Amino acid sequence: MGEWIGRGRKARRAYGFDEIAIVPGTVTINPNEVDTSWELAGRRYEVPIIAAAMDGVVDPNFAILMGKLGGLAILNLEGVWTRYEDPSDILNEIAAATPERATELVQQLYQPPVREDLIQRRIEQIRAAGVPPIVSSIPQKAERYGALAEEAGCEIFVVQSTVCTVRHISSEYKMLDLAKFIANTKMAVMVGNCVTYEVALELMECNPAAVIIGIGPGAACTSRGVLGIGVPQVTATVDGAAARDKYFVQTGRYIPIITDGGMSVGGDICKAFASGADAVIVGSAFAKAEEAPGRGYHWGMATPHQNLPRGTRIHVGTSGTLEEILFGPARLDDGSQNLMGALRTCMGSVGARNLRELQRVELVIAPAIKTEGKIFQKAQRIGMGK
Q1: What whole-number distance in Å separates Cα of residue 64 and Cα of residue 72?
Q2: Residue pair 276/234 in contact by the 8 Å Cβ criterion
């Protein structure tokens, strides 16, 4: 499989959201009568759209609000909320920085060490509001931060890195035994990120609650440019779904896959589910919420890396409340608001009663899907031409 890219070398063709389209069904359903819920670690959530673990998106208050609206928001345990008692001034400084100054500033502001007491207090704050806390850490810190999180009452722990594998080699630091970590904690553990069938299958063999799919597609991420790595999200999701289904046939255990990044409007989210996702993680769309801590700015988790930043600060603006972004009513014409309404309407249009049925709809390769007939929108920078 693959195409020749030169003498003796082939490469697979991979696809992103802009290159495919969902084919409408032969039966349609009232959007109000479809089921958008999904299951994670034995609990059902009405909103299958998760807020990304980025400081411009999720703080404890945002996590609480998202939970009360039926979804999940991941708090980054290595962000400003665990380094500073009150990071309000820090967030204001990041938002006010010039583009030239932003990366250097973020690097400086993330130098103070993570405070273990703040890890527990942030989790306790979310839990006290009646919302299941979900937090993230890189693999090197997972054992220590995981123990603190579990003690504070955390329910879901995310082990997340740019590229996550079971077989990691290092002589400089202790490697995380992922299977052992998952087996020894009472928390549900999500792991990621990956983009290939083989790695997804190996991660599933460690018995996680979910596997996260996506390397480099985020709006604030520059890994693809800096490192040259990644697989477009449609192909990565399809391959991850194939691993999930193979693992289910072999073991009888269904491990959800969660597509992370590259989705800024409702249509992209719908295509992720049609490619096989059980849930999605979104950053920039939620960074636009009035309740988001980024003041209209969004930056990636890898931005503060001291030697090789793999993210940047971007301006997304503030477009409405979190509730409007999730459920409407939409005040914008570009698909960035009422994401759940878009998902429901898509499901109704293709005749999918639930997300599992949406995963099996017909897809077509359609590179002109966003430009065909849209010359006036593009010229006037409205709707799909923004």
Answers
A1: 9
A2: no
Q: Cβ atoms within 10 A of the Cβ of 61, count?
A: 15
Mean pLDDT of 162-173: 86
Asked if residue 79 belongs to a domain, the reply is yes
Q: How far apart are CA 230 and CA 249, in angstroms?
A: 28
pTM of the model: 0.95
E runs forming strands in the chain: 3-6, 9-11, 20-22, 38-40, 43-45, 49-51, 72-73, 75-76, 134-137, 156-160, 188-194, 210-213, 257-260, 279-282, 297-299, 313-315, 363-365
- What is the percent of the chain where pLDDT is above 70? 97
Taking residue 143's Cβ as centre, other Cβ atoms within 10 Å add up to 17
Question: What domain range is 53 assigned to?
Answer: 37-385
Distance of CA 50 to the CA centre of its chain: 6
Q: How confident is the model at residue 131 (pLDDT cuts 50, 70, 90)?
A: very high
Q: What is the C-alpha to C-alpha distance for residues 150 and 188, in angstroms, rounded to an integer? A: 10
In a domain, 165, yes or no: yes
The rounded distance, in Å, linking the Cα atoms of 71 and 61 is 14
CATH number where 46 lies? 3.20.20.70
| Domain tally, the chain | 1
Q: What is the pLDDT of residues 218-249, one digit of tens each?
A: 888 878 888 889 999 999 999 999 999 999 99
Instruction: Decide: helix, strand or coil at residue 2.
Output: coil
Residue type, 50: I
Q: What is the pLDDT of residues 74-90, one digit of tens each?
A: 999 999 999 999 999 99
Q: How far is Cα 259 from Cα 299, in angstroms, rounded to an integer?
A: 19
Residue 9 lies in a domain: no
Three-state helix/strand/coil letters over 219-282: CCECHHHHHCCCCCHHHHHHHHHHHHHHHHHHHCCCCCEEEECCCCCHHHHHHHHHCCCCEEEE
Q: How far apart are the first and last CA of the chain?
A: 36
Q: Answer whether residue 143 is part of any domain.
A: yes
Distances (CA, A) of 209 to 119, 126, 189, 321: 22, 21, 5, 30
Calpha distance 263→285 (Å, rounded): 8
Where does the pLDDT of residue 212 fall: very low under 50, low under 70, confident under 90, or very high at 90 and above? very high
Tens-place pLDDT, residues 274-315:
999 999 999 999 999 999 999 999 987 665 666 666 778 999
